[in-house]
């Protein structure tokens, strides 16, 4: 059994004016007299803590209860919502600062870390929970495991602080679940492997039902657009349904549809080999869908949610769909498949048709859909195409709070013409404009399978990986927490 090595993360606000002194958080102020040979404030002055947000300094042996103490800079206490950046900077500063301190202690071998709530226990818990996660299931050398606790000493309302910390911990856990699915190799997270993990994580949660459908079921449902993608792979396709009934009985559920291509080779329209390994994360939409419902259930949100995840591989096997083939979707529309690497929209088309048979109150579909979205927004935000300004306003504000931002993209009929003017069928799976406006033509294609007036398509291709742009995230960034914030807002309404 490993020896317990305790550490503490404490926060300090940067001076509001140049040359001023830093401002200690209540927890830090309460603790500072407990250090050996003087106050913590004096130590900070002598050591010269860099007050740039996210910077930290570690002290050893200055307190018997906590042999390792990381003091982190939270930026200015006056920080708030930044209109140009579209983010709550105070919450982001807390996430980044706490993550910096926790990571330093974790790397130093500390395995029980108490964290100053820093005025926002939820954000502090998110930063701590997200930064300590890593996918190392297949490595001989594992990342050191850390137990995270909220440092409530001196808090006015310990119960409220702990409750908010618990919520933030669950939000981090849900996003880490999505990241696990996206990071694991494609021979582990096959369509079958995805469903098995879904059952493992969700089957014991209250008010959750898991249904796993097979190819025969999809054939009966006439999901030939979905099936056309999986034909080139020997891995059996699956269609995963998750039902969470946390709201009032009889209330229409909100539908979330997630693209679940567990590996995308491009099919006959084969991708270039460089970075093809990252296509194990092409099921990011399904991962976020599953992670969001998992989190909503753990938080016991009073809302009904129904998740739909078509799962398959896109491979160039001998039965693979060929460029120029025509397939028929569940709603009877025919699709000319001119590029088999534009497969995500094909599986989402049938999933959207099926989702609408449940008469949902609204629909979100999520997908790592287009390289064009990566070109347009990079890793800064997910692109949102919506037929409903009401839904857009809710998710826009959710992104402000979560830090996983979203940006509205055009859903003009201009793009519809580019996918409906085709030689052999009702629709073409790539726009006549080629790569120009590719994210927009993909959304226009999906719109042809949606009759609901409250629908959003979220293209998360740009944020499927995090390359150190977000300090508190490791690999496999996802929009999970934004979707949970969105569902929380629906529940409050």
Give the class-level CATH name of the largest domain.
Alpha Beta
Cα shape: elongated
CATH topology descriptor of the largest domain: Aminopeptidase
User: In total, how many beta strands?
Assistant: 20
The fourth-level CATH homologous superfamily of the largest domain is: Zn peptidases
Keywords: Aminopeptidase, Hydrolase, Protease
InterPro entries: Leucine_aapep/pepB (IPR011356), Macro_dom-like (IPR043472), Peptidase_M17_C (IPR000819), Peptidase_M17_leu_NH2_pept (IPR023042), Peptidase_M17_N (IPR008283)
Protein name: Cytosol aminopeptidase
Pfam family, one: Peptidase_M17_N
Report what the structure shows:
By secondary structure, the protein is α/β, with parallel strands linked by helices. The protein has two domains: 6-156, Leucine Aminopeptidase, subunit E, domain 1 (3-Layer(aba) Sandwich), CATH 3.40.220; 185-492, Zn peptidases (Aminopeptidase, 3-Layer(aba) Sandwich), CATH 3.40.630. It has 15 helices and 20 strands. The strands form four sheets. Strands 9, 10, 11, 12, 13, 16, 17, 18 and 20 form a nine-stranded mixed β-sheet that branches. The protein is elongated, with a radius of gyration of 24 Å. 54% of the residues are buried. The model has no long low-confidence stretch (mean pLDDT 93).
Short recap of the structure:
The protein has 493 residues and is an alpha/beta fold.
């Amino acid at each position: 059994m490993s020896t317990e090595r305790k550490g503490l993360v404490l926060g300090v606000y940067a001076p509001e004016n140049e040359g001023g002194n830093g401002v200690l958080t209540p927890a830090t102020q309460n603790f500072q007299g407990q250090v050996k040979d003087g106050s913590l404030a004096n130590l900070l002055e002598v050591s010269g803590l860099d007050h740039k947000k996210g910077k930290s300094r570690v002290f050893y042996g200055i307190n018997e209860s906590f042999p390792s103490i990381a003091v982190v800079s939270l930026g200015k206490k006056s920080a708030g919502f930044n209109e140009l950046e579209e983010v709550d900077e105070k919450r982001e500063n807390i996430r980044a600062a706490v993550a910096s301190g926790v990571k330093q202690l974790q790397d130093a071998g500390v395995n029980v870390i108490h964290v100053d709530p820093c005025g926002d226990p939820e954000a502090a818990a998110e930063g701590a929970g997200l930064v300590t996660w890593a996918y190392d299931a297949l490595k001989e050398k594992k990342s050191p495991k850390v137990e995270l606790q909220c440092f409530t000493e001196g808090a006015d309302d310990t119960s409220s602080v702990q409750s908010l910390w618990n919520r933030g911990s669950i939000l981090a856990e849900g996003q880490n679940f999505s990241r696990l699915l996206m990071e694991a190799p494609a021979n582990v997270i096959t369509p079958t492997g995805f469903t098995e993990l879904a059952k493992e994580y969700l089957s014991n949660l209250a008010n959750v039902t898991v249904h796993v459908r097979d190819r025969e079921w999809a054939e009966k449902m006439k999901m030939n657009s979905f099936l056309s993608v999986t034909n080139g792979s020997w891995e059996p396709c699956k269609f995963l349904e998750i039902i969470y009934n946390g709201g009032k009985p009889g209330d229409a559920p909100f539908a979330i549809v997630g693209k679940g291509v567990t590996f995308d080779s491009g099919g006959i329209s084969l991708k270039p080999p460089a970075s093809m390994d990252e296509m194990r994360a092409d099921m990011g939409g399904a991962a976020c869908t599953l992670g969001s419902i998992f989190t909503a259930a753990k938080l016991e949100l009073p809302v009904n949610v129904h998740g739909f995840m078509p799962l398959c591989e896109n491979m160039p096997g001998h039965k693979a769909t060929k460029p120029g083939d025509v397939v028929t979707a569940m709603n009877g529309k025919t699709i000319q498949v001119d590029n088999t690497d534009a497969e995500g929209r094909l599986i989402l088309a049938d999933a959207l048709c099926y989702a609408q048979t449940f008469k949902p109150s609204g629909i979100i579909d999520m997908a790592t859909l287009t390289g064009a979205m990566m070109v347009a927004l990079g890793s800064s935000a997910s692109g949102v195409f919506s037929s409903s300004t009401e839904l857009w306003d809710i998710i826009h504000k959710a992104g402000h709070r979560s830090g996983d931002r979203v940006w509205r993209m055009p859903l003009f009929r201009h793009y519809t013409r580019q996918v409906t003017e085709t030689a052999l069928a009702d629709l073409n799976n790539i726009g006549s404009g080629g790569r120009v406006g590719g994210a927009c033509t993909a959304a226009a294609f999906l719109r042809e399978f949606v009759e609901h007036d409250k629908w959003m398509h979220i293209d998360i291709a740009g944020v499927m990986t995090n390359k150190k742009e977000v300090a508190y995230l490791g690999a496999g960034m996802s929009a999970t927490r934004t979707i949970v914030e969105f569902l929380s807002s629906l529940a409050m309404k």
